[in-house]
Amino acid sequence: MVLQLALSHLGTHIADLRSPSILPAYGIEFRGWQTTLLAAVGAKTKTVMMPGGYVLFKQGWSSAELGKNANDGIAGFLENWAEMGNVGSEGRRRTVGQQVSGCYAAAPASVAVLIVC
User: Most buried residue, 10, 30, 100, 105, by most Cβ within 10 Å?
Assistant: First the structure.
């Protein structure tokens, strides 16, 4: 599953870079994490959590909750934990020292590790 998530994230970056429209770094990462989340949900994960405690998905959320919480979680992660801000600036890399039992850790060529259970 980890490889599937990483490839979905990378594939989105490749598509964005080949697109004639130019997105700032924040937009490229936001889209990458949206695609990663969709792949994780499609793989029937129960929870998708970003470092810093940003929960993007929990099984059982309504569609409305998923849309709002996923967007808020990705934005919060990028702006606060990854320190990218919504201005297209380059984020600083951080390391993750947290381990979650019974979960997979995926690092889709970005600034963090995605935790899925």
Answer: 30
DSSP collapsed to 3 states, the chain: CHHHHHHHHHHHHHHHHHCCCCCCHHHHHHHHHHHHHHHHHHCCCCEEEECCCEEEEECCCCHHHHHHHHHHHHHHHHHHHCCCHHHCCCCCCCCCCCCCCCCEEECCCCCCCEEEC
User: How many angstroms separate the CA atoms of 12 and 35, rounded?
Assistant: 7
pLDDT tens per residue, range 89-107: 343 333 333 334 444 444 4
HSE-up of 68 (CA within 13 Å, CB side)? 5
Which of these, 109, 93, 110, 105, lies nearest to 48 by C-alpha position? 105
Most confidently predicted of 28-32, 79-83, 85-89: 28-32
Answer whether 0.90 is exceeded by the pTM: no
**Given a cut of 60, is residue 8 above it in pLDDT?**
yes
